[in-house]
Specification:
mainly beta, Quinone Oxidoreductase, Chain A, domain 1, five-stranded antiparallel β-sheet, three-stranded antiparallel β-sheet
Amino acid sequence: MKAIVFDAIGSPRDVLYLHDVPMPRIGDGEVLVRMVSASVNPGDFLFIQNLYPEPKKPHFPHQIAGNHGAGIIDAVGANVALKPGTLVAFSHYNSWAEYAAVPAEWLIPLPADYPLDAPDRW
């Protein structure tokens, strides 16, 4: 899948690039979200520059950028009550990619009729 990643700490304009990365695998209590949108905010730039408070620190190589997003649940791990097809928003790592593995407790279910061009504006 495609993702915006970085391999070094620095200015986003200098370190971000588009890269093919493996599809995330989900575990117990996690869901696979097909991303619809992802916000860009100051916290993302702090993360890329390693200025975000602990424990949110980048892991290399190919750290996927982005800390907030919204999408549609594609698959669920064991012990997850949410169903595939549910539109969700979240604040978690790795949102600047086609898919993200997210712990279910970090998800905010959105109404089924919520406009797909607006789910990350919360």
